[in-house]
């Protein structure tokens, strides 16, 4: 028979769970501050176009270059998921695939922030972006590993107004579920980096490349801030 849930029982069980989660979150915050002091802060860029090394990867790299220029302690790495075999979330017994060895990179205590790049596919994120975001799910329990880290989004489309901002917005919503801090860049990149590719090139898109730089710069600046007192321990 189910025990009726009294207010006292609810408060005692949720406070125990909350305490455990808070302790875990504090642990990761301490690790993050230590990494900053040791001059080892990493910004990870993830390109989620199925086409390796194409415009999305180049745009994410432009953002990473600007992030690195902010401070000598900032290290950057581009993870180009193009050409990899990455399935969406399949439950607790997830079959191994190309993402399995990449997951630990997101547990790295020196990880200061993320820059995620997606091509616009039908005014939306690519299926590879969605699969990647779902595969981060093990980082939500028992600890919100990515909580309070800044994350920005780069989106590339073949049209000037091809849905880049919609794509960014969708990815921001997912990032909120990880307790991350979705941020835009400095002007003119308030929502994120929006690029226009022409003939599979972004080289001529000066404004778009400027948004990528301004996003990378702001992500690094926020990642370098001392970790605040507010901790996200919700699941
Ligand atoms: C299935 C598909 C749907 C697309 N839909 C859009 C779209 O809605 N808006 C847009 O601007 N470009 C669209 N494109 C173009 C891509 O966003 C564009 O070519 C982008 O640069 C691809 O990124 P990549 O070079 O990194 O592969 C689409 C391309 C494909 C293959």
Global mean pLDDT: 88
The count of strands amounts to 6
Strand content: 15-25%
Q: What is the N-to-C succession of helices and strands?
A: HEHEEHEHEEH
Q: What's the helical proportion of residues?
A: 25-40%
Total tally of structural domains: 1
Structural class: alpha/beta
Provide the gyration radius in Å. 19 Å
Distance between the termini: 27 Å
Output the CATH homologous superfamily: Flavodoxin domain
Bound molecules: flavin mononucleotide
Tally of separate helices = 5
| The CATH class | Alpha Beta
Main β-sheet description: 6 strands, parallel
Low-confidence stretches: 5-27
Q: Can you tell me the CATH architecture? A: 3-Layer(aba) Sandwich
Q: What name is given to the CATH topology?
A: Rossmann fold
What is the overall silhouette?
Answer: globular
